Structures are given as C-alpha cells and as structure tokens.
Amino acid sequence: MTPDGSEHVSPTPRNSIINSAAYCNGVRVAVVPVADLGDAWRYSDRFIWVGLYEPSEPLLAHIQEAFGLHDLAIEDAHQAHQRPKLEVYDDSMFVVLRTARLCEGGDHRIEFGETHVFLGPRYVVTVRHGSLKSHVGLRARCEASPQLLAKGEGFVLHALMDFIVDQYFPILDALQLELDELEEQIFSGTFVRSITARLYHLRRDLISLKQAVTPLIDVSARLSRITSHLIPPDTRPYFQDVHDHVVRSAELIDNLQNLSHIALEANLALISVAQNDDTKRLAAWAAIIAVPTLIAGLYGMNFKFMPETEWEYGYPVAVILMFSICGFLYRWFRKVGWL
Fold it and tell me: Which of 22, 234, 295, 301 could form a disulfide with 46 if both were Cys (CB 3.0 to 4.6 A apart)?
C-alpha cells in the first residue's frame, strides 16, 4: 500500500525490466522494485534511473502513474516506430532516439532499434525497442563517473545520446570499406550482377541510417540551447559536442550517398560499354563468317552455268579467296578495335 492508501499495480514480466536503481551523489545506493518506484521518487531526494525493454502496456501504465508521465509520450513509447524527436511538457521531456548496430555475419547489414527517454525531476526512464545489445555498457560507464552522474537527469540524457551517436561511426566506416571494395571490383573489369545488388543494398542502408541521424541535428541543437531546469547550464556544452558528432555523421552519410550514386552510374556505364564491345565482336565475326558462306552458297546453287565450274583450279581458287577475304576482314576489325 502507498501512503495515500492506494494499491500498487502488480509488477509486469521480469524480462521487460533491465534495471531499476536509485542514486545519491552519483553513486548507486539501492535497487528499487518497480512496484515501489512512485514512493522512492516522491518521498526521497534520490535520483531514479529505470531501464525497460519492450514493456507491456500495464507496465507502462504503472510507470506513468509512478512519475506522472504525459499520455501522448506513453502512447508513443508503447507503439514505437517513431522518428527521432524532442517533446517538452510542463515539467518533463520526451526524447526519441534511433539505435543502430552492425548485424553479426560480416555482411554489413544494419539492425535498427528505438530508445524512448522520459526525463523529469530526479528520474530518467528509458524504453528500448528492437536491439537489446545497443545499450550494453552504458550504465556501467555512467556509474564509473559519479561526479558527472551526480548532475542527474541531464547528464544521463547526454551520455545516452553520445553513446548512441558514437555507434553510428563504426557503421559508416564499415560502409565506407564496402564501397571502396565495390569500386575496386567495378574498375577492375569484373562485371557481375552481384555488384549492382550490393550497391543497391548499400544505398538502402545509407537511406535508413540518414533517417535515424538527420532529425537528431535539430534535437541536439535544441538541447544545447534549451533553458529547462532539467538541463542545467553546465550540461548544455555536452549536448553541443553531441550536436557536432551528429552533424559529422550526417555529412559522412551524404558523402557516401554521393559516392555510391557515382559508383552505381559508373558500374552501369561500364556494363553498357562491355555490352557494346560484345556486340561489336559478334558483328565482326558475323561479317567474317558471311564471306565463305556467301561464296559457298553461290557454288552450291543448282545451276548449269556457274563461274569456273569447268576450270581445273576453280575449287582451290575459291577456297583461297575465302581465306584471303576473311583474313583481310579479321585484320581490319582488329585494327579498329572490334576484335
């Protein structure tokens, strides 16, 4: 029972709760059961940090009741599939971030997820959707700097955004290496259909990554200038650093998109040139083969009066003539580059 006599909502499945801890001066002092979150937040001066993974609707409803979260933010957190954004309410904030990590297997495909962050006085609630591994080590890294964690919710939001944004760079490096490899194959004269397919998948990954990064430019810029009590003045420069990283990521994505477009056009152009060369070779050999076919066809016609039919050297002369003309055509086509 709570002090006002109401009953707690029963806890939801354990695997939805990643962590629920209370901090004092940047040091973890207690693990707070989900059922006691409201009391731990209202009746103490400790900072609460709750991490959830794909929570159920009853669990989100209990979290909303414990911290007084806004209905619209809870609805977004439950449905997921949101674009990165920042929404400011009376005494709280709601931030949506997109996580990204390379899938295992070395094919450079990207696994995307979402992280929804509820920020308020002395509490942070993170709701993850998608990749569970995208936050590995974040809480431990924050707890290793108690002097910064003591700054409260503003520092946790910065640490979370910085952690997610930094994960974009290894992905961009891997995509850059893949593009370099494809360029080498394109200009080596190896024209296979898989190159075009890989370029298509690369461009699709870049578009998906850009959709995750581009909205963060506005979000990080707003956080670096915001005048909310949740983001104290000494924390805002940290968000400016995140903003710089986001802008750099967006520029790298634009560069890779331009280079991949040029590589795709070059690949298609070289394939077209190769097809034209094949057509020339076929036309040249067809012309060469047409000469003996024509001569042999004439002598194969069933007419009484044919040239040189009664001549002793008619057959060898016709054969020599065939080879001579074919040899001349072969040398000429070689000279003009058709063979």
Answer: 22
Cα-to-chain-centroid distance, residue 197: 16
Amino acid at 44: S
- Helix 236-299 to helix 168-187 angle (10° resolution) is 20
Entry pTM: 0.75
Q: Nearest CA to 288 among 247, 248, 329?
A: 329
- Longest pairwise C-alpha distance within the chain: 127
pLDDT one-digit tens code per residue, 5-53: 333 333 344 468 888 899 998 899 999 998 889 888 888 888 999 999 9
CA-only gyration radius of the chain, Å: 35
* Residue whose structure tokens are 């944004």: 165
Domains of the chain, each with CATH number or no CATH: 1-149 (3.30.460.20), 276-336 (1.20.58.340)
Residue 254: count other Cβ atoms within 10 Å of its Cβ.
Answer: 13
Q: Could you count the other beta carbons within 10 Å of the beta carbon of residue 259?
A: 17
Spatial distance between the Cα atoms of 154 and 76, rounded to a whole number of angstroms = 21
| Residue 264 CB coordination number (10 Å) | 18
Q: Which residues contact 111 (CB under 8 A, 6 or more apart)?
A: 100, 101, 102, 103, 130, 131
